[in-house]
Amino acid sequence: MKPKGNIYHFKHSLPRGEVTIWLDKKQKKKYLFLHWLGANMASVSMASLVFFYGTPLFWETKPEVVAQSAQLVETPVEIAEEKPQGNELSITIPSLNASARVVANVDPFNEDEYLPALKLGVAHAKGTALPGEGRRIYLFAHSTNSPLNFTQFNAIFYRLRELKSGDVVTIRVNSRDYTYVVREKVLVSADDVSWIAPTEGEQLVLQTCDPPGTTHKRLLVIAEPV
């Protein structure tokens, strides 16, 4: 920006002084515009940081808010539609006052398949066992594509972090109930798919995203049959 040149030289200038720079109308408008642009870019950058990273920090540092917000989703989910063909599944977690339909045989690697299923309830991973078959059962409700809609996609399982060892989970297949007891909770990376692999003994794995409303990590609740 004009005028150009040395305003101060540490060897030849006085120890202190005052410099006045006069700008014509065009230069003044340009200066004001650049000043406005810089201030707004800083504001947008700060807002973006809060939007994308504020949600994980909020849920990590405010566990009491999770419990309060959970009041909104404690009512058991009822799906008013025709009964699915084949096995009819549902899950109940008494300690969380949570109950939901389970959509069977959903591909956890196909968004076109699991996103619609998660809007109905909880998804059962395709290729994993059903209760009573003696192998690993994998249920998930983990999808979210924005911190703004975690209550839409993750409302059923986002309180899983509150489960404790000894809590009971019941899976109903048709008219028969299968009861499982929570043994541990594991936090894994989002790309860890080892827990979907089959096991020799029967085991129930419940998966959700952690912190709630994000896709950064996976919280797994491991339960064993009674």
Summary of the model, kept short:
The protein is α+β, with helices and mostly antiparallel strands. Helix content is 26%, strand content 27%.
Describe how the helices and strands are arranged.
Layout: H1 25-61, H2 63-69, E1 89-93, E2 98-106, H3 111-120, E3 122-125, E4 136-140, H4 150-153, E5 168-173, E6 176-189, E7 203-210, E8 217-225
Parallel strand pairs: 2-3, 4-7
Antiparallel strand pairs: 1-2, 1-5, 3-4, 5-6, 6-8, 7-8
Describe what you observe in this structure.
Helix content is 26%, strand content 27%. Strands 1-2-3-4-7-8-6-5 form an 8-stranded mixed barrel. It has 2 domains: 22-61; 63-225, Sortase (Sortase, Chain: A, Beta Barrel). It is elongated and about 90 Å long. It has 4 helices and 8 strands. It is α+β, with helices and mostly antiparallel strands and 226 residues long.
CATH topology of the largest domain: Sortase, Chain: A
* Largest beta-sheet details: 8 strands, mixed, barrel
Order of helices and strands: HHEEHEEHEEEE
Radius of gyration: 28 Å
| Spans of at least 5 consecutive residues with low confidence | 58-85
Per DSSP E runs of 2 or more residues, the count of β-strands stands at 8
- H/I helix tally: 4
Which architecture of the largest domain per CATH?
A: Beta Barrel
Biggest sheet strand order reads 1-2-3-4-7-8-6-5
Structural class: alpha+beta
- Report the helical percentage: 25-40%
